[in-house]
Write a structure and sequence with these properties.
Number of domains: 1
Number of helices: 14
Order of helices and strands: HHHHHHHHHHHHHH
Largest sheet: none
Mean pLDDT: 85
Structural class: mainly alpha
Strand content: under 5%
Radius of gyration: 19 Å
Shape: globular
Distance between the termini: 22 Å
Low-confidence stretches: none
């Protein structure tokens, strides 16, 4: 993985890590399914009237739109509304790393080296440290919802990985056209039938949250993430997502006052170490061997 890919991966990590406390701000005033519907609507309209349909199958658009937009974010926002803190949500959602690698091996026959496997193992051990912090920060329902959200994300990763020669910004704009209608209907029947009153009572903080989550987290970050997945092996790209809980927990600590424990610090160090092994250890080993 070259320096360009690494820097872009870190940019996505930063955007998505900060995303979690920003989502919490929006959920203070908006119900979760309505919030999710609005984030996609803001990206799609009016952009779809000016951006051409991407050169790919409509099934790819629908697949990512349903698994990422409706299912992943629906489950995530519902969990974060009452059943999980921002920091813990950023952690459990990264089970998508494991799901994506397993699906890539099964579907695309990708092969990971022993060194990469060791790095992923070390990072996963660090990942597991955060489970010791699960107490009042999450409910059993929250854990189940977030793991389902992670699995749905991994399916969308697999779909995006097979897309070739497509402008991914255009792709994400059209993907964002899929979720709003089903999410608005779900919100109407399960949350509130008085959507207009809710929207009129929201403050600038909520609209800032929507703009950040819509344009930075959804449009830009997922377009970059899709490019990374189709350019590099999933076993090289997805471990970066294990850094998202670190950014998420630190930013939640600053913005929401969620405290960082010593256990979480140890876990963060292990995740960083595992990521370093996964990406750089093979290159370093080869250079030493060739001298």
């Amino acid at each position: 993985m070259d320096i360009k890919g690494i820097l872009l991966a870190f940019l996505v990590v930063l955007i998505w890590g900060i995303n979690f406390p920003i989502i919490k701000f929006g959920l203070e005033e908006l119900p979760p399914i309505l919030f999710s519907a609005l984030r996609f609507l803001i990206v799609a309209i009016p952009a779809v009237f000016f951006i051409p349909f991407p050169k790919t199958s409509i099934w790819n658009i629908l697949g990512v739109g349903v698994f990422l937009g409706v299912l992943k974010f629906g489950f995530l926002f519902y969990a974060m509304n009452a059943d999980a803190s921002a920091g813990i949500s950023s952690l459990l959602l990264q089970a998508q790393v494991i799901f994506t690698i397993i699906l890539s091996i099964l579907i695309y026959k990708e092969v990971i080296t022993k060194i990469q496997a060791i790095g992923i193992l070390v990072a996963t051990i660090g990942f597991s440290f955060f489970f010791f912090t699960v107490n009042n920060s999450i409910t059993t329902l929250g854990i189940i919802l977030l793991l389902f959200a992670a699995f749905f994300w991994s399916i969308s990763n697999i779909i995006m990985k097979r897309i070739k020669g497509v402008n991914l910004l255009h792709f994400m704009v059209w993907v964002c056209l899929v979720p709003p209608l089903p999410l608005f209907l779900m919100s109407y029947f399960f949350e509130s039938k008085d959507t207009l009153t809710i929207l009129l009572s929201t403050t600038q903080k909520t609209w800032f949250s929507l703009v950040y989550v819509s344009y930075l987290s959804t449009l830009i970050a997922f377009a970059i993430w899709g490019w990374l997945l189709k350019t590099y092996q999933a076993s090289l790209v997805t471990p970066f997502a294990l850094l998202i809980p670190i950014v998420g927990i630190f930013s939640s600590s600053v913005l929401l006052g969620e405290k960082l424990s010593s256990t979480e610090i140890i876990g963060a160090i292990l995740i960083l170490s595992g990521l370093f092994i996964t990406i750089f250890a093979k290159k370093i080993f080869n250079k030493i061997r060739n001298k």
